[in-house]
């Protein structure tokens, strides 16, 4: 009886303790991963440094090669064509060679691409290289580039996982690329005041080789994602085309690719028309430089804020609204703003491109792992190609409608297209969620 009374008292005390209010703590909820955590991963540090070096090489080579072609020919058209060739062959490498990203170990692909780029630039330095050879080698660089970038992005998911660290890693690589637009061409032009174009190209060879060494030493070997039993050129091209077809056949992936591709086609319009717009405003070369810098500056600010201050769920929640709103500031060009307001419109539009962080998460989640390399390569190729198309169309439209009308029209038409694409992406998201609920997978 005594034991039973003690047991009852113990139960009563336990019940009182459970019912008593628990002390609250002032500890903040765990913060999501930040940019600093990506650098805690040694492999990412190597990938990041290699990206910066490769980008430096590309910028220096573009400037030096353009000047070299102009020195050899005296033709502004051929000099401009050198830049254009940096866009157009992307679609070749991104479709016909996309299979390389999944059929071979990623580290081998990345190192080989860097070595091929170094060899192409080294051949440009040869004294006997004529204009035809220079342009052909420039095309070769552009063909290799989407394979390298797609493989690197797929490898980033292996290095950082396919969660928020991957999104932040991708964001950091984009921030470096946008920062290069702000300072790279200026530094490249300054370099050419000290050395000749051919000597500047030698620096590019060094940056590509350094990138290859970093990737070889700083990243670990990973097996290929798919079997490469047949590796002939015909088999590779066929496999690449089939892989692209498989990627594009998935409604969710296709909708996300369009969201990656279409907004930048309209976003490049002010950049393509910056020179004639600066001339209309009468702001000279200083104003032109500011107009060229405003959009990437806004992009960097938007990505940094979204990546460091917003939680992953919040970034995904605002993705589609930002897609629909990012191009709308361009419509302000119809009001004939001065330089200050034009810069503000470009800054706001650039900040809206923070939607890419949410898209990155959705895309890596939607693409089957065995197709990840091809999907990332196709994404890169389409993005670069469609920006080139957008620049060309902007020039044609401005010839007939004028610069301000063209930019404002790009804002309105682009916003409509983005809204339609956002609705399509929302439908595929609901369909995928329904399929997931039905299959419980």
TrEMBL record:
The keyword Transmembrane helix applies. InterPro entries: MFS, MFS_trans_sf. Its main location: membrane. Residues 1-15 have a biased composition (Basic and acidic residues). Residues 1-32 are annotated as: Disordered. It is a multi-pass membrane protein. It is found in: Cell membrane. It comes from the Bacteria. One of its GO terms (molecular function) is transmembrane transporter activity. GO terms for cellular component: plasma membrane. Coiled coil: none annotated. This is MFS transporter. It comes from Streptomyces naganishii JCM 4654.
């Amino acid at each position: 009886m005594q034991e039973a009374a003690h047991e009852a008292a113990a139960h009563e005390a336990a019940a009182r303790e459970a019912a008593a209010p628990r002390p609250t703590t002032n500890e903040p909820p765990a913060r999501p991963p930040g940019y600093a955590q990506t650098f805690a991963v040694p492999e990412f540090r190597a990938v990041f440094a290699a990206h910066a070096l490769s980008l430096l090489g590309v910028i220096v080579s573009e400037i030096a090669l353009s000047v070299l072609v102009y020195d050899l020919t005296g033709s502004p058209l051929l000099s401009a064509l050198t830049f254009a060739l940096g866009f157009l062959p992307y679609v070749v490498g991104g479709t016909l060679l996309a299979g390389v990203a999944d059929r071979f170990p990623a580290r081998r692909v990345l190192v080989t691409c860097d070595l091929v780029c170094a060899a192409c630039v080294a051949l440009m330095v040869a004294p006997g290289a004529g204009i035809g050879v220079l342009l052909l080698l420039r095309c070769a660089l552009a063909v290799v580039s989407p394979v390298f970038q797609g493989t690197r992005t797929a490898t980033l998911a292996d290095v950082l996982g396919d969660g928020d660290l991957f999104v932040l890693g991708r964001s950091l690589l984009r921030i470096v690329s946008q920062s290069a637009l702000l300072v790279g061409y200026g530094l490249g032009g300054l370099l050419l005041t000290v050395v000749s174009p051919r000597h500047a190209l030698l620096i590019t060879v060094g940056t590509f080789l350094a990138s290859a060494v970093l990737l070889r030493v700083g990243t670990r070997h990973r097996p290929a994602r798919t079997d490469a039993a047949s590796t002939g050129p015909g088999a590779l091209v066929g496999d690449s085309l089939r892989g692209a077809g498989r990627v594009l056949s998935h409604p969710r992936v296709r909708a996300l690719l369009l969201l990656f591709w279409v907004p930048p086609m309209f976003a490049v319009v002010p950049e393509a028309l910056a020179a004639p717009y600066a001339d209309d405003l009468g702001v000279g070369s200083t104003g032109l430089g500011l107009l060229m810098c405003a959009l990437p500056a806004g992009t960097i600010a938007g990505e940094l804020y979204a990546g460091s201050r917003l939680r992953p769920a919040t970034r995904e929640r605002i993705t589609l609204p930002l897609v629909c709103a990012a191009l709308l500031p361009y419509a302000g060009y119809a009001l004939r703003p001065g330089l200050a307001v034009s810069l503000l419109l470009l800054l706001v539009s650039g900040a809206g491109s923070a939607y890419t962080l949410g898209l990155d998460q959705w895309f890596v989640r939607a693409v089957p792992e065995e197709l990840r390399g091809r999907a990332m390569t196709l994404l890169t190729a389409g993005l670069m190609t469609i920006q080139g198309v957008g620049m060309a169309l902007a020039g044609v439209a401005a010839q007939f409608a004028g610069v301000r009308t063209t930019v404002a029209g790009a804002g309105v038409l682009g916003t409509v297209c983005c809204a339609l694409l956002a609705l399509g992406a929302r439908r595929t998201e609901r369909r995928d969620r329904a399929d997931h609920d039905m299959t419980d997978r």
